[in-house]
Amino acid sequence: MDRFPQDYVLHNLPFLLLSGLDSRSPSEPDPVVKTHDFLHEGGFRIKVDAPIVSGPLAEQLLESFCEQDASDLPWHSQYSTSRSGRVFRIVKVGRVYTLPPRKAPPPPHSPRLSAVGANGSPPPALVLHSPLSPLTPSSPLYPDGIISPLWITKHQSRLPCALLTVFSLVSDPNTSSLQDNKLKSEINNVRSVLTSTNYKTRLVVILLGDGMINPADLEDRVSTIRRATGLDGKSIHFLAHNSSPKEINVFVNSVLSSLHPLCVEYYRDLSKHARRKRNRSTAPQPTVQPGNSHILSSQGWNVRYEFKLGVFAEFRQEMDAACRNYETAYDNLFAPEIIDAIAVWSPRFNEARLLADVIAFRTIRCLLWTDQVTTAVRSWVAHRDRIRDLVDRRGKGTDNYGWAAWQTAWAKVMADLVSRSEYPLLHVGLPNAPDLLPLFVDVDKSLSVGERFVPWELLHHEGYWLDIAKKCIYARRSWALQIPEEDRQSPGRSPASMVASKAHLYDTYLALEPYREVPIDGTPGYDYPGEIISTLDAAIRHFAKRGQLRKIEVLELQKALEQIETESWVEATLTLRQLWHSKKWRQGGWWKLLQGLGWALLDCLAHVDDGELLFQLIWELSNEVFDRKPNTNYDLRQAVTPSSTSKEPLSVAVGIDEALSPLVATFAFSTHDVFVGEPVECQLCILSRAQMGLPAIRLSEIKVVFEGGLKPVHLVAKGEEGGNTETSTVQFIDVQVDESLAMSLSSIRRSSAGAIPSQTSSADLTIPSNHTKIFRLRVVPREAGEIVVASITLIIDHETVSFAATSTDFSHSIGRWWESKAGKPTPRSLGQESNAFNKINVQPKPPKLKIEAPGLRRSYYTNESVTIDFDILNEEAEDVIVSLDARMISPVEGAAQIMWIGTGSETTPVTASEAGVLTLEKRELGTIPSSGKAVVSVRIMDTATAVDHEVELLATYRLRSEPETILTKVLTVDVGVIRPFEANYDFIPQLDHEPWPNFFEAPPQHSDSLTPLGLRHLYSVAANLYSFATEPVVIEAILLTATKVVGGAVCSASTGIVRKSANTDVATKDPNATISTVIEPDHTETFDFDLSLQKLILGDRHTVAAELALQIGWRRQDSDEVSTTLLEVPRLVAPMAEPRVMLTVSSTGVGLPDMEAHKLSFTIENPSMHYLTFNVSMEASEDFAFSGPKACAISLVPISRQSLKYRILPNKKNEWIAVHMTVVDAYFGQTLRILPGGSGVKVDKKGNVLVKV
């Protein structure tokens, strides 16, 4: 796109000028672009004397306007729609600006223009036209040009549709009138200049406040300025001085929103003007007749006006209308009357080609804008074919570098169009691969159903078009190099006649002249490599976004070859290195391509010092799949010497699994299942796949590393290696490995094993081409578990290089075991056993150490300290050295704690290795003799939660004769912790026989503040304790304790007394009662408590709430250790300020045998601070006769109580009978419940009061 004038190809946006916020003015001629002079001469100069508006508010306003500039907005309707179609090109200018002239000045005096006509009368007046019109003699189009890019420059860069001028509105009331008058004068001056131009440019005034202005004064001042300058309401705006950034953005959006329809109407008026001119029947006459030249024809004028209509439609963002105008202009341009009528040697021919390219370019942009992608690609192809036909018919043909240069530019045009449009369907992630972008866009829906299309008519991404451009650059260079040498000489060195005769032999449209394209005098010509490489880089980036890896590698290879062609050795090496390390070529088996790549890298390394890469290349190119490169030294110990410039030895590492290798190393075990301490037969096979005729590869070391309990195997080359006397290509070598911590290697410079314990030996490590060496050795695993071959490393140590080739992936190798048959080594497949996959399973040596827990109980209880003794029995034939690890696994984290017990070990720390797992510190038991025993104990504490625990004891021991063989024994015991008891509770109120304190008496002077002086409530608490234990347990004592008392009271309770009769529903005082008992499994024992609640202050009316707990001290029958279990008791709530009725019963005689009367005492309590009256009524019953008041009223003063007594004579014996007494609070109308106040009284589930008779 950079091959064409920028104004020709840029998308047209409504042009706004922002004046007064920036001091820079484009009115000064640009030294680079000379078109400004042409557009300034005779123009209309606008000058404002008011200073530039500055300050933070002005800077924020300028920044907000610049953010609304859509010059860099992608060329697609989606991005324009995101701004609601309001897009502008906003340019900031100073206080001086020059609008382009409307008419060109009269031509200068010429001799042929006489002052008197032929008949003696004055000549007719000259008709003046636009400076850019083909009718103006000073125009570059005079007399037969069609259009110039200066015309678009005029409308896109010089002639705005609106002029936004910014002024400061002063807030000082003393100078506001004077400043407002100056402001009116400045605005009227600008308006007068705009009126004189006959342009319809809109003037918009923006006033910025510099301080606080009264709203009423502000409205009057703005209205006065508007009326004095003739502006309407949409042409003047005010922005307050204290506006926030958000308010500034809203203000700018409001200004642009009001301007948008006016700007669209401005360009619509220009379209109407151009359409009227197009519809004229005759061509206009020029200012001065051109003499022998022809003026522009009517068809040419139609092309000019159709192009103008398309541009004005673009200004209005009406891309459909613009596309139609461009298509009409394009068809008219290729009419025989226009382009075929232009002489090929005339500059107008190239101008017509340029106009055709620009119209096609703009047409494709309009089609992409409206999502007609297939039509856009077809238009691109159609224009290419039409231009090819044109240059074949009338130009220099297509077999030249000029045509290739045009094709390059045209392909890049399409790439630039796709890039600048940021076409949405090409920039959305694929459903199955969100990180990748689509390759092309499917056929657009605008095509008719069933219409045929070819794949290259789909819209592909930018890389596709850049790849086409790259091919055209190659063709351009190929054609340019075929130019004869005499045509490539500078014109200064050739005769003028020869220069004139060859001036039109070559197509230089969008290309250089031959002497500049490929000069013969050694001066730099066209930079083909630079353009090729930059095009390839851009294409690679786009192909990478689509994941087209094969295409990327092809382009990278072409780029490297181009860099080699230009002798850019370092850049070529970097490019080829990436391709060389790619796995895809090796996986695909492209050995010839890989060989060519490797040879090219070797050529580059002849000029680049990179010994590491050179060694890797020699190592891999030594493989038999490649041919031997002539004049190349394949000796690994000498290959790096010529390019080594450092005194330090070079360190090189190669992964055999990722690259071809001349040596293949495998390791095999003879069996797949062994025991600890048993020797295992192994084979280390080194197979040479080097090219025949290459020097033997002399390894310095071979190291085999294992995963698991097996030390590395380390083979070292012998100090003096003799020649290979074996005639067979396959050879067995027996190796005896020795275990050592560190070996002394005097024959080599470095040991790869270092100080790591290893199994070492020495052997002949020289591997000739096409030879196989099998090293047979024995290894002894010392630890149980799975052993896997982790890596095999082949090491070459030399004075100049330290090389290591490592193989870690053996999944693709075939497991084989070499056997000797008829004196020859023969491979045998290992089948599907684990050792066929470089893996064996080492079984632990059967341990003879026993662990027992003889005293383990079936169950344990919460809050009990559990001690478990373990016996460690040594049944081995010799002494053992034992260490113990213990851990406890709980389903609930923090459910218990564990510790060692023993001499000095009670404080052993516990580590929480994971959730619910507690691990004890390792405990060393030392030596246990044969048939000996050791005892260790662990204690489990804080068993507050009833869960099942697992205690795991791991004994790790070594035989004294085999200290490296580790044996293990594990014992896991289940420790079940259950709740030993469960209880339910009965709270029975009791009547307090102690006299109540007198409310009317003062408290004693010596009383303590903590001494309770208030009312007291008594309760009898029965705890029914059920045993979940699996054995009888001894209850030593039970306490009822208060954990929390709320409401300003104290709580006290007696020790639990065992109730003797389990069937008794009511607690009875037994002087011989005990506090301890034995409770059998699944049995219930009842314990009685006396509970007292007393207020601290007599007048305190708050309700008392007591949170209680039952503490049970118990022990096993075979143990003296007492454990304490804590059970929660339901919360007791006592409303001590509410009246209540308590019933007690006692027996009394009546003087008759076999008959017994009972005395009922109803005590009515008034603990409140009010005088209360209660209506009492006693209901008759068939079960007894009573004496006492049938109904009465009892009045109680505050904090007092009164007893109402009845005698009853029941007709039953040893039964519970119901007594119906009703007590109603006369004032509140509340019926009080009858509560039992002692033994012999209870309340059933229905609330009836029962008395035992």
**CATH architecture group name of the domain at 7-96 and 145-277:** 3-Layer(aba) Sandwich
What percent of residues adopt helix (DSSP H or I)? 25-40%
How far the N terminus sits from the C terminus, by CA atoms, comes to: 118 Å
Overall pLDDT confidence: 86
Residue ranges: pLDDT <50 for 5 or more in a row?
25-35, 741-755
Category by helix and strand content = alpha+beta
CATH class of the domain at 7-96 and 145-277: Alpha Beta
Number of strands: 58
Q: Name the overall outline.
A: flat
Domain Gryzun putative trafficking through Golgi: 657-1253
InterPro entries: Gryzun, TPC11
Organism: Fonsecaea pedrosoi CBS 271.37
Region (Disordered): 99-119
Task: Give a quick rundown of the structure.
It is built from 23 helices and 58 strands. It has 1253 residues and is an alpha+beta fold.
Which short descriptors sum up this protein?
58 strands, 30% strand, Gryzun, 23 helices, 9-stranded mixed beta sheet, Rossmann fold, Trafficking protein particle complex subunit 11 domain-containing protein, Immunoglobulin-like, 1253 residues, TPC11, alpha+beta
Task: Summarize the helices and strands and which ones pair or pack.
Layout: H1 6-9, E1 15-19, H2 35-40, E2 44-47, H3 56-67, H4 77-81, E3 89-93, E4 96-99, H5 149-158, E5 162-169, H6 176-197, E6 202-209, H7 215-229, E7 236-239, H8 245-278, H9 298-315, H10 319-333, H11 347-369, H12 373-393, H13 401-421, E8 440-441, E9 459-460, H14 462-480, H15 496-501, H16 514-517, H17 528-545, H18 549-565, H19 569-580, H20 584-587, H21 591-605, H22 611-621, H23 636-639, E10 650-655, E11 663-669, E12 673-675, E13 680-688, E14 697-698, E15 701-707, E16 713-717, E17 730-734, E18 738-740, E19 758-763, E20 766-767, E21 772-779, E22 785-797, E23 801-807, E24 816-821, E25 824-829, E26 839-843, E27 849-852, E28 860-861, E29 866-874, E30 880-889, E31 897-901, E32 910-914, E33 917-920, E34 923-928, E35 933-941, E36 948-959, E37 962-978, E38 981-990, E39 1016-1027, E40 1033-1046, E41 1049-1053, E42 1057-1058, E43 1077-1079, E44 1084-1095, E45 1104-1116, E46 1123-1134, E47 1140-1148, E48 1157-1166, E49 1172-1178, E50 1184-1187, E51 1191-1196, E52 1200-1210, E53 1216-1218, E54 1221-1225, E55 1231-1232, E56 1234-1236, E57 1241-1243, ...
Parallel strand pairs: 1-3, 1-5, 5-6, 6-7, 10-23, 12-26, 16-19, 17-21, 28-37, 47-56
Antiparallel strand pairs: 2-4, 8-9, 11-13, 13-21, 14-20, 15-16, 15-22, 18-19, 22-23, 22-26, 24-25, 27-29, 29-35, 30-33, 30-34, 30-36, 31-35, 32-33, 36-37, 38-39, 39-44, 40-43, 40-45, 41-44, 42-44, 45-46, 47-48, 48-52, 49-51, 49-54, 50-52, 53-58, 54-55, 57-58
Helix pairs in contact: 3-8, 6-7, 8-9, 9-10, 10-11, 11-12, 11-13, 12-13, 13-14, 14-17, 17-18, 18-19, 19-21, 21-22
